[in-house]
Design a protein that fits this description.
Elements (H helix, E strand, L loop, with lengths): L6 H7 L2 H13 L4 H5 L6 H13 L3 E6 L2 E6 L1 H37 L1
Antiparallel strand pairs: 1-2
Length: about 110
């Protein structure tokens, strides 16, 4: 059985722009919509929308900083996402191994 995953969380990290944003925030420690938009191929408004999605699933948290808002990755939530991915990957690895064994058994039966 494949472990349950948080679909909203995986939808949020499924977007390549949001993954790149997380990478940048992790590398820099924090960032604003303006600093992120300077390094991404999207507008500041698009960055703000992406940050909203990441915020709704708890992957980033925001702190007011003057006229800007400072975003940081919630490392505990990111660790949860990584653990879910590892768990799903292990479940699929086990399924694929069973499929391989079945295919080998069928092949041996046809060769014999």
């Amino acid at each position: 059985m494949i472990p349950a995953v948080d679909d909203e969380l995986w939808s949020a990290v499924g977007d390549p722009v949001r993954r790149r944003m997380l990478d940048l925030l992790l590398a820099d420690g924090s960032g604003t919509a303006t600093t992120l938009s300077d390094r991404l191929p999207v507008t500041r408004q698009a960055v703000t929308k992406h940050l909203g999605v990441l915020g709704r699933v708890g992957l980033v948290h925001v702190t007011p900083s003057g006229r800007e808002r400072l975003y940081q990755v919630d490392e505990a939530q990111l660790a949860r996402a990584v653990a879910q991915l590892a768990s799903v990957g292990s479940a699929w690895d086990a399924r694929l191994q069973r499929i391989r064994r079945i295919a080998e058994t069928i092949q041996r039966g046809q060769d014999g």
